[in-house]
Amino acid sequence: PIPCVPWQSQTSGQYQRRVHGGITGIWFLILIFLRNRIRIAVQVMKSATRAIQDMPFMVLMPIPLTLCGVSFFIVWTLSMLYITSVGKFIDIVTPAVLRGVTINGDLVGDTYKYFTFDDSMNDTIWANVFFMFWVLNFIIYFLYLTIAGAVADWYFTKRDADGNKIRGNEPTELVKAPLTAALCRTARYHLGTIAFASLIIAAIQTLRAFIAYMEKTMGEKKTKLQKILFKILHCCLWCAEKCMDKISRNALIFTAIYGHALCPAAFSSFKLIWRNLARTAAISMVSGFIGMLGKLCIVLFTCAICVLLLSEATDVNFIFTPIVVIFFISYMVAALFMNLLGIVVDVVFLCFLVDEEANKDKGEMYADEGLRTIVQSNEAASKKIAARSKANRTQVAPVEV
User: Fold this and answer.
1) pTM higher than 0.85
2) Is residue 356 within 8 Å of 375, Cβ to Cβ?
3) Taking CA atoms, which of 175, 213, 219, 324 is between 20 and 30 Å from 127?
4) Quick one: 246 exposed, middle or buried, by C-beta within 10 A (0-12, 13-18, 19+)?
């Protein structure tokens, strides 16, 4: 007999198939319309991997700054514990009905001790929270600008006949230690820019923490309107933080290229990104997918090897605990490397946009062969787009090397 399926199940199944089919069709159309941009994104990813290959010590760059951030956070936590525990004991007169009464074998005296917290120290809690966010974001942006400076130097360097970046001390050559040079340049010239960028993000994060604290202290006494307002505030501040973080990172890349201050760099980089929104969407999509796939593959392969090795070990009775430890370690390593790759991709992409607008007309682009081939194949369409947007274009100075 043929099983009878309720019409409600048939209808829901049809709706699900239609929704999935529609999403698949939209995704397919996006891939078709953005195919040229995706080709550029793939070439940018290849250039980013070449940059890491030419500067292998870049992989180790986040480790010392991460240790600095962790050390600072530990010291900050201890200082916050001290601030919140500062106070003194005062003597309070015992109520008459309790004097001389024995409770659990203890005689109640004429006075008892009561601990009071120091209000002047408690007033500095939020200032210390802001300071913590500021220092941690300063360390993050310092690392970002250092890597951006090294990658920008690598990008705007000519290659020799064998396709390798020319090394040396001349202005047209890549120094032998680009990471060290970028670190010294950042520490000497751009600490104020980093402090300003991290100050903005720290202010937004402190405000988010304060609103979350207010929401928690109100407990269950909040009305539905108050709950909705808190959700709206959280959403708005989260969006503001993400937008300002992205703008600040692009501005730091522009600072690494031109040496501009934060505000001019933020304006110029935003206008440059605005003129290339389709390319930006494609590079974000490709880099995000590759980053997620890279983390997944590293973690799965590492855990699979761990399972194979432990299953053959005779002196191991329970393999779950070491597998969990290996999982977290492999995820941290994967996240560290893929985040570094994401930073390099962002820098190479913005350098490519600057290079295209500043040097394409002169035929002296510094991009790799794959990127130059794509640009030349789409030169006619690019000229039409440039003609339409010429009235609103922000001039980008050519890169002199």
Assistant:
1) no
2) yes
3) 219
4) middle
